[in-house]
Amino acid sequence: MKLDIILITVFLKLLPIYCTPTEPVIYGILPDIYNSITDNIIVLPSNKPIHLSMFGLKMDYISHIAFASIKKPRNSSCEHERVTNSFDALPENSFVSTSVISLRELSNNEVAFFLCIRVTPTSLPKADSTSNYTDIDGKWIFAGDGGGTDSVSDYRLSFRTTTTLMPLWVQIILIILLFFLSGLFSGLNLGLMSLDKTELKIIESAGSHNEKSYAKAIRPVREKGNLLLCTLLLGNVLVNTSLTILMDDLTGNGLFAVIGSTIGITLLGEIMPQAVCSRNGLAIGAKTLWLTKLFMLLTFPIAFPISFLLDKILGEEIGQVYSREKLGVLIREQALAGTVAADEMNIITGALALTTKTVADVMTPLSDAFMLSYSANLDFHTMNEIFSNGYTRIPVYENDRQNIRSVLNVKDLAFINTDDKVPVSTVCDFYNRSIIIVLDTTNLGMMLKEFRQGRAHMAFVERLVTEGDCDPYREMIGLVTLEDVIEEIIQAEIVDETDILTDNVHHQVRQVRKRDFRMFGLHDSQGKSRLSPQLKIAALRHLASEVKSFEEKYICYSVLQSFLNANIVGECIYNPKDDEANTLYHMGQWSNYAILLLQGRAVVQIGVEGLIFEAGPFLMFGEAVLKLY
Fold first, then answer.
1. So where does this one cross the membrane (predicted)?
2. How far apart, in whole angstroms, are the C-alpha atoms of residue 102 and residue 51?
3. For 514, which DSSP code?
């Protein structure tokens, strides 16, 4: 705008002063684009088409323009001084003419480009054919200046061009290379610096084959965290700055250079590489490691002092450390992503929370526990209660339920005969099992460690009562077992075939039939033979589980119990004098009954060969008869 005002002002001021000349006179020139004005000379970008407007008198007489590298007075010959191509002049009227020019770079010994014009006879009016400038018709002459001076130091009708740093093809190659390096540094800054030492160790130990090799190659460089960071940032800044300079030199316009470099760096140097490296940073970092090491070497004089200062101020970089809560959240996120099964997630999170939970969270209250009195006798009724509740370990108390004396294990009763009515105290004193007492604030981790020592798998929980004015004392409030701790680890209830409750904390009752063996204690005085309750229970379980005809879908369990109490038990004593009385079945003869051998032995002879073998308890004969009915 400043140049426009100067040229137009000069043109308007000079126009009235001079009389109409007999030859074309140029008072001013105006290019549509220019870089700057230096020493009153317009500086144009080189090798670019520029729309040039020329102002003067008799501009319609000019057919072509060109430029010389030296200056001579106006109307001097420019035939041999021209150093550029000629450009067509397109007159709009007698005062204005335009042309499109493109100027090369100035050589070292050239000062500027000076305007030359060509006036042709075809452009002269017929009335002026005898004018005094017919001697220059069709020749190239210096335009000079219409302002009244022909001094060779007057540069008002001249141009200078900017010089580029390097050839165009070299600039284009360098710009492409710098865009690549800008994207690489930006991507590596995100990809490598986001991989901390802990994560690299994890990948190196538990990744795929390629990931292990990548992590092993990257880890030594990543150990120098601040030096790597300084190298990548210095490289990125250096590349982006060089890009802006080259773009400015290439476009010749600062605004275009800023816009072009901003768009290019944002798209090619930031968004795209960071999007790629955020997902494939490990592989890209490993494959370009040689380039990273090269730039670490090149920038070492600058990067090392900065990184050393950062190490001293910020301290040594450590890997990511996760708390138990963060690890739990991380595992749950992996489960949502499908990389960890739900059961595996429960076990891991349960193990992480083991030391944060106490026995008070998982214990069975003492009021809900099945217990035996120390003074009780192990008769049939007591044994029935033990087996019906389905517990393996039974606490034994004396007088008060909070006064625990011992723990009775069901396997301790293997050799106990209910008819002997052995006192519970006798069995407890014989095995002399120790009991474990813990406070309700004991965490499950410590409780598991105690159980692993093998002293016992059941512990009793006490709490410290400090209420009131009395001295603190301990109160027994519940019990905890190894199974309770394991259930907290796996985050699920362990239910076996004898459990009545599925959850001892919320008292969820399991939908299972409770076995009641009391009816086996009733004896029929009219029966042929009396069976002990233990043998009846064994017979009941054998028939219900091993003989298909007595399965629950064919006969109700309670009916089967009544069936065993009926008059169906017989006793056969071997009589060496009566073979017929000793025979249960005859070969080849039809029978409508089945026999279950409960005690003793029987001799079986089968086949035409008369093979003989002995049959023992719980072997059934004639089961095929039952299937017929």
1. 168-192, 226-246, 252-269, 290-310
2. 9
3. P
Query: Looking at per-residue confidence, does 2 or 549 come out higher?
Result: 549
Could you tell me where the DSSP H helices lie in 267-323? 272-287, 289-298, 300-314
Q: Which of 491, 494, 410, 505 is nearest to 461 (CA)?
A: 505
Q: 44 in the Ramachandran plot: left (φ > 0), alpha (ψ -120 to 50) or beta?
A: beta
Positive or negative: CA dihedral 361, 365, 369, 373? positive
Dihedrals phi, psi of 422, to nearest 5 degrees: -70, 135
Maximum C-alpha span of the chain: 175
Q: Is pLDDT at 89 greater than 90 in this prediction? A: yes
Q: Quick check: 482 and 494 in contact, CB under 8 A?
A: no
All domains in the chain, ordered by first residue: 2-161 (no CATH), 168-314 (no CATH), 359-509 (3.10.580.10), 522-628 (no CATH)
Q: How far apart (Å, rounded) are the C-alpha atoms in residues 65 and 500?
A: 111
Residue whose C-alpha is closest to residue 517's, from 545, 532, 537 = 537
Distances (CA, A) of 108 to 34, 70, 160, 248: 21, 13, 12, 22
Q: Within 318-471, where are the H helices?
A: 324-337, 342-352, 359-362, 380-389, 424-431, 444-452
Tokens representing residue 147 in the block: 């302002």
CA 445 – CA 329 distance, rounded (Å): 20
**Beta bridge mates, 423:** 377
Return d(Cα 52, Cα 70) in angstroms, integer: 20
**pLDDT tens-digit series, residues 45-59:** 888 899 999 999 888
Residue 78, Cβ density class (10 Å: 0-12 exposed, 13-18 middle, ≥19 buried): buried
Please tell me the distance from the alpha carbon of residue 245 to that of residue 251, in angstroms, as a whole number: 10
pLDDT at 24: 84
Q: Please, are residues 21 and 13 in contact by the beta-carbon 8 Å criterion?
A: no
Q: Catalogue the long-range contacts made by 531-537 (C-beta closer than 8 Å, 24 or more residues apart).
A: 531/564, 531/569, 531/598, 532/419, 533/380, 533/418, 534/418, 535/598, 535/599, 536/564, 536/565
Rounded to whole angstroms, the Cα distance separating 257 from 35 reads: 13
Q: H-helix or E-strand containing 10?
A: helix 2-14
Give dist(CA 413, CA 158) in Å, integer.
121
Q: Which residues have a Cβ under 8 Å from the Cβ of 551 and sit 6 or more positions away?
A: 544
Residues in the chain: 629
Q: What backbone phi and psi angles, to 5 degrees, belong to 147? A: -85, 0
The whole model's pTM is what?
0.50
Report CA Rg, the chain: 54
**Single-letter code of the amino acid located at 468:** G
Residue type, 185: F
Predicted confidence (pLDDT) per residue in 348-384, tens digit: 888 888 888 899 988 999 988 999 999 999 888 888 8
**What's phi and psi for 387, nearest 5 deg?**
-75, -30
Q: Are 87 and 101 in contact (CB under 8 A)?
A: yes
- Residue 340 token pair: 């960890």
Q: Which of helix, strand or coil describes residue 474? A: strand
